[in-house]
Design goal:
The chain has 445 residues and is an all-alpha fold. It is 69% helix and 0% strand.
Amino acid sequence: MFKKFTNGCVTIVNKYLPDPFLFAVILTFIVFLMGIAFTGQGPVDMIKHWGNGFWALLAFSMQMVLVLVLGSAMAQAPVFKKILKNFASLAKSPGSAILITTFVATVACWINWGFGLIIGALLAKEMARQVKGVDYRLLIASAYSGFIVWHGGLSGSIPLTIASASGLGATAGAVTEPVATSLTIFSPLNLAISVAILVAMPFVTKAMHPTPENTIVVDPSLLKEEAIKEHANITPADKMENSKITWGLTVLMGFGYIVYHFYTKGFDLGLNIVNFIFMFVGILLHGTLRRYIDAIIEAAKGASGIILQFPFYAGIMGMMTGGNVDGVSLAGVISNGFVSISTAKTFPVFTYLSAGIVNFFVPSGGGQWAVQGPIMMPAGQALGVPAAKTAMAIAWGDAWTNMIQPFWALPALGIAGLGARDIMGYCVITLLLGGIITIAGFLIF
């Protein structure tokens, strides 16, 4: 019965889910029409909001390109390949390959979402090389499924934002003092949800593995590792590119800053420092700057989806947050609609659901907080809901619908060489599982 339901989801998604770029275009048209209908703004106003927001994610887009490119380049180093091979060797069957991949990816995403996205996809690819009979689509979907815990983890942008006084600007006075991470990330509620997903998800993804006749195994030739290029060391230019001195000084400088960063800022794993670590660990492991350059050139081939689609999502965010003369925005209408039907008991659940809906159109943790923080935090305070619980409801809602929103899957798909429709059918199941566990957590605690 479970496999039939899973197969049905996979079939429907394969038939009806368009390419992620077309998905972004369709969402653009939907938000355009909804903005006109629900905020009373005209077509010109919505086009203005769209155009004004179109380039608002340029810095973030570059960060995401670097997550993909630097993470992939690091993994091409011989030492790193050996580590992944050792992990993959633990799997002795298709089921165990799915289980291990899901578990490792979930833990890695809880530690840091950028790290987890890359590690999960690379481990899944190595599993496909070593384990016969494992469904490649489900492997990548299992790796991506771990991403559902990111906003409850150590790199969760909302709990980290409200942990400092400078991050309270979006709370409209509802929170006047920083909210310690002991009340958000390390609260019994958040840890219970995270652990429940970590324990249940691997077994659910394992149970989704298709029967042998429905299994799609990747052609091993497509995953064949490129031989390490050998470069001549004849001309002065060759010698500079292969110089151990230049390489060593570069590595020394990079790791010097990494040590300084953690010494002065503690365990701060923001996206910039993660990319910085990816870059200099990659340079270190490749042994020369020339080899690292070659790895970057190869890794950059998978970044086209991010480059093309992120400006459209920035435009969608512009239309979602663009207000009329009274300051009413489409995101505000959605959030206020859920607030109007909430009680103190149900408010966190409705906040979670509304955040899941808004996440389709504003797929960014920081953007989500800017949109919903000013609405949900004062409403929660008025109902007597703790600020930390309201904030984590927004955070988990933001992470929840990532399972069927292709935006965040692009780095993993770029590494895997797959399209969104290849994995999203399986991700529907992880969406349902995550939703059940999270809603239960907010109702129980």
